[in-house]
Write a structure and sequence with these properties.
Structural class: mainly beta
Number of helices: 3
Strand content: 35-45%
Distance between the termini: 70 Å
Oligomer: single chain
Largest sheet: 11 strands, mixed
């Protein structure tokens, strides 16, 4: 195992030196259950100074620099390797990825397996211009048993943070593993080949936990909108559906003020191609923890009053919509709908989308119909005393049907036929 550490040392030293030319590396806000664990260099680890002790994230010149600074952030999807380890400036509406580096520092590999390893993130639930996320590592047989570090998200206005459900992952040399949403509450168990809580020592078994958080500008309320196909269990910000499917929408409201608020109004604006299903609106809150059916079907029109909420009080409104085809184009259609909460005259919004790919019979290229030739009208007879200039009605046979021309005019045959073809296209 020593050779692995030595090879990493040559890379890490160069990285640390480069970082030093850009900005001084600062380590702060970290801690552990021993009130301050020792730091080790890679040389000290290789020389056996750690002994038989299993410890995490204590190398001062390791793979990420000082491992005690193991929580960082960056813009989600950014194609950069640099993480903001202490602070990052954030904007309303943007999503950020939070990283937690996990490394059992023992050089003894599978002879020094850490047990009961799990990761936890603590995400603030109140409104502020500065939001600090704390990441924790726990292990039942490590010394210390618990480690923590933090990263602060700074905004120019009051914001709250929303954890993006389903975004938690653990990536190591064995692959990428999805983690449960409990990573932000009771914690998520980690591992190497499976999430069994066991991580051997050395860099080859290290990994990175990531979650995504979305920044919302707000001074009084949090509103989150999600959707799922009816009958499924997982909520998300978007789903794929087809015409005729029923989808369930969920609107979460949270009072972020330190005071009670009354008459909270919830309203949802459906897109043209989604219809509200009558008698499908349910309210969930502390008074109705199993949900109550609302008789008022106005959640998608004038909105509904969901009552009074204390500080940090919350509620969920759920209802069903049916995907219909009123104005869909062939190909991909994004049906976006917005939910809003009105609190003390201020409106707070969030959206969810249903994606529909229209590829039915109406989208298939149809052969161009052969135009019906215009019939040659019968010549008008020369007026005679017995026939003083009148135009006779002519009957033109067209097969099963008969079109009358003459006084109406031959041109009307083409116009009428054209309208019929157009109407059939709409009906197919």
């Amino acid at each position: 195992m020593n050779k692995i550490y030595k090879s990493i040392l040559s890379v890490s030293a160069a990285a640390v030196m480069l970082a030093g030319t850009l900005a001084p590396v600062m380590v702060y806000a970290w801690g552990d259950s021993n009130n301050g664990r020792p730091s080790y260099t890679l040389d000290q680890i290789n020389n056996g100074e750690l002994g038989d002790t299993i410890t995490f994230n204590s190398i001062s010149n390791g793979k990420i620099g000082d491992e005690k600074n193991f929580v960082g952030a960056k813009v989600a999807g950014a194609n950069v390797e640099t993480w903001n380890a202490n602070t990052i400036n954030v904007k309303d509406g943007e999503t950020y990825t939070i990283r937690l580096f996990v490394h059992n520092n023992s050089p003894k590999g599978e002879e020094a397996i850490a047990k009961g390893v799990k990761a936890t993130f603590s995400i603030p639930t109140t409104v502020a211009k500065s939001q600090t996320i704390v990441g924790y590592i726990d292990s039942s047989n490590a010394t210390p048993n618990r480690y923590w570090d933090e990263v602060t998200l700074n905004a120019s206005e009051n914001v709250y943070l929303e954890y993006v459900e389903g975004s938690a992952k653990f990536n190591n040399n064995n692959g990428t593993f999805a983690l449960p949403n409990e990573v932000i509450t009771s914690g998520a168990t980690l591992g190497y080949t499976s999430m069994n809580g066991e991580i051997p020592g050395c860099y080859q078994y290290s990994g990175v936990v990531t979650i995504d958080v979305k920044v919302h500008s707000s001074v009084a309320a949090k509103v989150s909108k999600q959707v799922r196909i009816k009958g499924t269990k997982t909520w998300s910000e978007s789903v794929e559906a087809k015409v005729g499917d029923e989808v369930e929408y969920q609107i979460e409201y949270v009072n972020l003020l330190s005071e009670q608020v009354k008459d909270v109004m919830i309203r949802d604006v459906l897109p043209t191609n989604v219809e509200y299903v009558t008698d499908s609106t349910y309210l969930y809150n502390s008074n109705y923890q199993s949900g109550v059916l609302l008789k008022d079907n106005t959640v998608t029109t004038t909105g509904i009053n969901i009552g009074t909420y204390n500080a940090k009080g919350n509620a969920y409104v759920r209802f069903t919509g049916k995907v219909v085809d009123k104005t869909m184009a062939c190909g991909d259609n994004q049906l976006v709908n917005w939910a809003s909460a009105t609190v003390k005259g201020e409106v707070y919004k969030d959206d969810a989308s249903v994606f529909v790919n229209k590829d039915d019979e109406t989208c298939k290229e149809k052969p161009t119909p052969t135009p019906t030739p215009t019939p040659t009208p019968t010549p008008t007879p020369t007026p005679t005393p017995d026939n003083p200039g009148s135009t006779p009605t002519t009957i033109v046979s067209t097969g099963p049907e008969t079109i009358v021309t003459g006084a109406i005019g031959a041109g009307s045959v083409v116009t009428t036929l054209g309208y019929f073809i157009s109407s059939r296209k709409k009906l197919l």
